[in-house]
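User: Can you recover a sequence for this backbone? Please restate the input before giving your answer.

Assistant: Of course. Working from this structure:
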């Protein structure tokens, strides 16, 4: 089934939504001398780290590369918890893959492809995935998915990103704020 032929599509953000990775990411950056600003979440590293390095793209890239090495080790040593949203994605993606359900799932994230793939593999989640996306790019992909009769649901922990998206998306895209609610409460919101 193609992304544009399904009747329903469930998309999820990764960090803070599917996995509780905040500690891992902050620890990895701190280990290379970078303190993440509050506004960094939901954005690609270039969007916030280059300005924090006074526009020095090379320095930002080097710091990010070092952070990736530390982060990879942290993921191996201390796999992050799957959240209630992550459990829901695992359930939906398994139903889609095994039972041929009439819906599709995906992950859309600002995280790097490598980190995303490692996290999803560790949890046994097999789904479509798009990495290194800005909020604007996520919004555009959700808009494209919503063409025709497809009902799209997107789950994210970043209320600011959801507000920005709401301004640009049609009514058939449901935006769900994941704020730590339990699995039952989240399922009720998503269905």
């Amino acid at each position: 089934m193609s992304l544009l032929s399904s009747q329903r599509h469930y998309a999820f953000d990764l960090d803070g939504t599917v996995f509780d990775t905040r500690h891992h990411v902050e620890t990895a950056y701190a280990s290379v001398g970078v303190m993440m600003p509050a506004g960094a979440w939901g954005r690609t590293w270039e969007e916030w780290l280059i300005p924090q390095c006074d526009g020095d793209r090379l320095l930002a890239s080097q710091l990010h590369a070092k952070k990736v090495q530390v982060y990879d080790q942290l993921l191996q040593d201390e796999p992050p918890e799957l959240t209630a949203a992550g459990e829901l994605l695992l359930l939906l993606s398994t139903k889609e893959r095994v039972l041929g359900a009439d819906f599709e799932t995906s992950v859309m994230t600002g995280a790097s492809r490598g980190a995303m793939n490692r996290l999803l593999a560790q949890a046994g989640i097999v789904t479509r995935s798009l990495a290194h996306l800005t909020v604007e790019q996520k919004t555009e992909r959700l808009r494209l998915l919503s063409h025709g009769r497809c009902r799209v649901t997107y789950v994210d922990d970043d209320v600011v990103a959801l507000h920005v998206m709401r301004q640009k998306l049609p009514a058939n895209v449901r935006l769900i704020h994941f704020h730590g609610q339990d699995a039952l409460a989240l399922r009720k919101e998503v269905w």
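That completes the design. The longest strand covers residues 103-108.
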